[in-house]
Design brief:
Length: 123
């Protein structure tokens, strides 16, 4: 099993998990089971694509600025591909998806992922 070694990424995954759990419970209790599941799936799509980004970025051994940029672009391309495939999968297989809830969960976790840059890398 590949574990994410980056402290900022691990921290952000933890933040995402806490927020999406709270949002799932709130949406499920206010708007029903399918809304809660939709919010959870939206967050899961974002978290899974973030994991793809972290794994691809980690496999790129940057020795120069150019190779670091190529690794970052490869990781971002892999993340976008994962997002597109997972969005397609959810919307085609889960017929009761509540689109606003799904997109809310997705957008909130994407915003939280962008906060990884603000987390210090010290152990």
């Amino acid at each position: 099993m590949i574990l994410v070694q980056s402290k900022p990424i691990r921290t952000v995954f933890r933040w995402q998990a806490y927020i999406i759990a709270a949002m799932t419970v709130i949406a499920g209790s206010l708007w029903g089971l399918h809304a809660g599941i939709s919010v959870f799936l939206g967050g899961l799509v974002s978290m899974a694509s973030g994991a793809v980004f972290a794994i691809v970025a980690h496999t790129g051994r940057a020795r120069t600025a150019g190779s670091a940029l190529r690794a970052a672009l490869r990781a971002e391309a892999a993340k976008i591909a994962a997002i597109v495939l997972l969005l397609w999968f959810v919307f085609t297989t889960y017929k009761e998806v509540v689109a606003p809830g799904f997109l809310l969960g997705f957008v909130v976790t994407v915003i939280i992922f962008s906060a990884a840059i603000s987390v210090p890398d010290r152990q």
